[in-house]
Amino acid sequence: MRLWSLHPRHLDRQGLTGCWRESLLAQAVLAGRTTGYRAHPQLERFRAQNDPLAAVGAYLAVLAEEATARGYRFDHSRIDSSPADGAGTAQIPVTDGQLALEWRHLLAKLEHRSPERWQREHVLAGPEPHPLFAVVPGAIESWEREPG
Predict the structure, then answer these.
(1) How many angstroms separate the CA atoms of 100 and 97, rounded?
(2) 1 lies in a domain?
(3) Percent of the chain scored above 90 by pLDDT?
């Protein structure tokens, strides 16, 4: 499971659709609707929020917005708790070290499976974070499993 801290605009089609599916799975785990993936380390940052379902809902809403902007049809009704349901969700801190690791990981994936997107992305000074995340100084997150 990869719940990217990067803004979904950086993801290729496969990355965006995969992130959508995996985020829906994360939502199901947090809602107690599935027994698989309950101990997945990337869920720690959502579980640490006052309202984990609202946090993952806010995460999913941005993915759905990006999909719509690209002409994809993600089913918004699958989001259990969207930002419109409440007063808003506080940003989740993510370290600059984590963001840098994910950026390198994504660029390596794009270079092989989406060279045209890699051409656009690799020249950027760095990634923009997903709007749910606020970048703070630090090393790779404690829950990260270094990609192989």
Answers:
(1) 5
(2) no
(3) 74
117 Cβ neighbours under 8 A, 6+ residues apart: 12, 110
134 pairs with which residues across the strands?
Answer: 93
Residue 123 maps to a domain? yes
More confident: 48 or 90:
48
Q: What is the pLDDT of residues 70-115, one digit of tens each?
A: 999 999 999 998 665 545 678 999 999 999 999 999 999 999 999 8
| Assigned domain for 124 exists | yes
Mean pLDDT of the chain: 90
Q: How far is CA 21 from the centre of its chain?
A: 11
Spatial contact of 28 and 8, defined as CB atoms under 8 Å apart: no
Decide: 143 and 95 in contact? Cβ < 8 Å.
no
Is residue 2 domain-resident?
no
Phi, psi of 33 (to 5 degrees): -95, -5
User: What's the number of domains the chain is made of?
Assistant: 1
Q: From residue 60, how far is each of 29, 48, 54, 57, 146 by CA, in Å?
A: 14, 17, 10, 5, 24
